[in-house]
Prior knowledge:
Layout: E1 11-14, E2 17-19, E3 34-36, E4 42-45, H1 53-61, E5 69-73, H2 79-82, H3 85-92, E6 98-101, H4 103-109, E7 117-120, E8 127-129, E9 135-140, E10 150-154, E11 159-161, H5 181-192, H6 196-206, E12 213-215, E13 222-223, H7 224-235, H8 245-311, H9 317-342, E14 352-355, H10 356-367, E15 375-380, E16 386-389, H11 391-412, E17 417-426, E18 429-436, H12 466-477, E19 481-488, E20 494-504
Amino acid sequence: MSKLPDTTQAVLIAPNIYWVGMYLKNDPFQCHPYLIINGNESILIDPGSMIEFSETIRKVKTLIDMKDIKYIILHHQDPDLAAAVPEIEKLINRDDLQIVTHSRISLLIKHYLVTSSYYNIDQHDNKLITSSGFELEFLLTPYCHSPGAFVSYDPDSKILFSGDIFGGIEESWDFYADETYFSKAKQFHQEYMPSKDIFNYALKKIEKLDIEMIAPQHGSIIEKKYIAKLIQDMKNLDCGLYIEEKYNQELTDTIEELKKKEQALKEHSLLLLEQSKRAEIGEMIGNIAHQWRQPLAIINTSLAILKEKNKADMLSKEEIADKLQKMEKRVLYMSETIEDFMNYYTPDREKSYFNIKEAVEKALDIVNLKSNRSIHLNLLLNDTHNIYGQINEFVQVVVSILSNINDLIAIKKAEETNITISLYEQNSLITLIIKDDCGGIEEENLNKIFDPYFTTKHKSMGTGLGLHIAKMIIEDNMNGNLSAKNIYLDDGRKIGAEFIIRVKNES
């Protein structure tokens, strides 16, 4: 393309798109209005000041009737772009003429005595679609250099009408930019863009577009072959506050301070990670101890009975076999508990469908409630409900709940206790309820019982981890819910508590 076409006439830059500006001799601050011919809904972009008014109107009239202009796009509110609008309105003389701009800009343009209605792009999804189907897209570029600044993109011609962005100050003006254009655009952007950060925010939006040509309000029109490098050079440009030496130094100091803080945070994070690992190990050990306490007590009792009966020569082979079998079951459970907790945080743990009744029966056997004559068990279970997960984990949950009830019975020295375990399905949720009549939970503790390390028992009876881990298993590993509430009689007396496990039926 010629570097300087005949600027005494309108210059075609793409099909139906014209430059309609005026070449100001020896003026480094060239201003460029553009016209998009679109029947009786034609669009005039950044018409300029009264200096170019007569020449711009003359060029437009060689192309279309002024009454065919329905839209005037104003990318910002400065007089070099918008001052001629009131006079242009008179020539167009059209009731449905609209000023296309941002609402922040329309508040200021009215001071030119503009009388047309406003088409605020931020209230129209940042688009303009005419009745003929012609479409313009708008990208907001705030503070480049106006708070409401934006650029316009024609997806058909792939031309970006960029307002102040990519403008240049040129002593020797070329209509089309060449490879040296950045040196001409540099000064303009250093002085008019508020900061490197704000300018780069706009550039990152623009570089995502498929652009064949950039038509700025000032400077030269930029063809595709120069666009990518120009954007990259612009990104590295210090502008606005960045050219102020004091600000630059303060910014450098701030960045250095942030780097130091980032390093300190990394070191602190590593320390927290180590502490977390230690706490995790301690939590695991504490929970294993909690799960082992009941089986160990049963094994110890069985051994004591065997010893006493052996001394008295009262042991039969059948009784020895029975006690050994019970002890073997507890040892197996303890072994599985270690394995489960060792693998607790491993994401690929194997899961399968298991029967809930079977898991509850296994937990009852471990806690040994059935052999306690002072405990009356009411089991409302059936063997039709299966859920997806790890059976050993679910057993641990039930064991933790039952162990807490058992401890409470021992603490209160209750002579007779009723425990009801019921299982049912409702609204695709399988619900297991474990209910007792041991007097319930203190109201101030009800919201704390699932907290880690919370316990009202003596340290010899628990770590406060059992119910916490139980809740984690149900809610994190099985996508269910574990809760607890007190049970009251009609007269308001608290008689016990119930634990509710709800798991979605995925079978």
